[in-house]
Each structure stands twice: as structure tokens, then as C-alpha cells.
Amino acid sequence: MSSSAKPHVAVIGLGSMGYGMATSLKRAGLTVTGCDVSADAVARFVADGGKGAKTPAEAARDADIVVSVVVNAAQTEAILFGKEGAAETLAMDAVFISSATMDPDIARRLAKQLEATGRHYLDAPISGGAQRAAQGELTILASGSAAAFAKARPALDAMAAKLYELGDAAGQGAAFKMINQLLAGVHIAAASEAIAFAAKQGLDIRKVYEVITASAGNSWMFENRMPHVLDGDYAPRSAVEIFVKDLGIIQDMARNARFPVPVSAAALQMFLMTAAAGMGRDDDASVARMYAQVTGTKLPGAK
Predict the structure, then answer these.
(1) What is the pLDDT of residue 76?
(2) From 177, 200, 207, 245, active-site residue
(3) Residue 56's closest CA among 43, 69, 46?
(4) Rounded to whole angstroms, how far apart are CA atoms 10 and 5?
């Protein structure tokens, strides 16, 4: 560990989740270096009292813990093993915490590749959204060796309200996250279908929201996402493309396992249709807008 009592942490990926995680780590008294492809994001973090780095290799050089908060497996692999990647400079015995949602087989491969160099890999997908990231109250679904957990503990304590330790090898955390994403995607698609169908019936959808959230048909996603539809506000908290990716991973996993997943397959088609209609970067509640466009139904905020 570095000379100070508290470990040095590098956060690579200062998007809405990563930025909140970096500020939570800093608030816990850790020395934090931020790195992002956006120079503006790094400059903002430095202005907030953090340190900045231009490349993953530079960020990892003095780090005991690297937290990778990027979108997918390909970006995670590039951060580790690409040009100026973190694996070039990461100290022996340091830990790499991977927060991206990915196929468990890829998590296992990346862990094996990094562990062969004498460093630790913690498979640690996250759930909870940007607000909970900023509050240090994420749910983290982690798996890895006892040594990886021990090394990562100060960062995990600072970032998580709930830490689930799900196994002693990478891949388990990723698999748990994919089950969550299957349900999350299906619930958003179902909620969007229901609210648009209600609007088509001429119902007051604010009253529909009030009734459903007090009834058995409610879901966390209905309660969380449908206010975006009521307000006609599709600024992305979580984008449609995230579920195109994640439900696509579910299909790949299911096909390999010879396991049928017809409900999540239907949900994937809804997200694909929404992305194809030009809303891929908008909030995932835009599935309701896609239904409205196809059926000539008016929703709040529609031009």
C-alpha cells in the first residue's frame, strides 16, 4: 500500500455513476485520481478536489485500487490491456474492481488474464443509479478471491450501502447482475406498454400512476421510470441502448445454455424498436414513446 495509511484509488470512467463513486471515495478520506476520455469530466473532478490523470496507465501508477466504471466488456478490456492500459502500471498485489455489466464468461477471462500478472480482479457490477452512487449507497454484486475482497474493502465500504459477496471467483457477480438486468428490462418494457395503453384508453395517466403504485401490478421500475413519461422528460438517467446491450447479453447467455427466455426476448425487441426510432440515447422510459408513436397515442410532452 502507498505510504499513507489510506489507500490510493483510481476511478476510470467519470460518467454519472463513476463521478458519484469517485466523490464518495474522496468523502471517505481516500486519495482519489479520476480518469475519463472526457477532459472536461476530469477537470471537473480536479476542481472538486480530486486528482486527474489522462490515461488509465497514469491513473493506475500510484493506485492500490482501480475502480473501472465503464459501459461494457470491450471498454473494460481496453482500460486494462489496451494502449496505455492500467495493467501496464498497476502495482503488484493491487486490485482492479470491474463495475461494468458483462457476460460472466468475459469477466472470468479478464480476471484470469489479470491475475496471471500478479494483480487481483474483483468482479463487482453495481446497481442503484447516479444519486445513490453520489451518496455512497450503491448495491454492489461482487465475486472474487479473498485477497481481492480484502484489498478492495476500503473502496467497497465507501461506495456501497449493500455489498453482496457472491463467490470466490469472477463471473458470479456478473451472472447475478444479468438476472437483475433481465427483470429490470422486462419491467421497464411492461410499465411502458401499460402506461401507453392507459393513455390510449383516454385514462388520466397521473391517476393511473397513483392507482398502480398502490396496487399489486406495481414494480420498482414502474414507480421509478413512469414519472419521466408523466413529465414528458426523457433526459437519459439510463439510456435505451443500455438495455439493448444487456438484454442482448441475456439472449447470448440463454442461447449458449439452451434456456428459453421468451419474455426478455420480447422486451429486447421493444428496446431495439425504440433505438431504431432514434431514441437510443434517450431515457429508457422512451419505450412508452415508441408505443405512442406506433399507435398514434398522445403522451405528455409530445409535439
Answers:
(1) 98
(2) 177
(3) 69
(4) 16
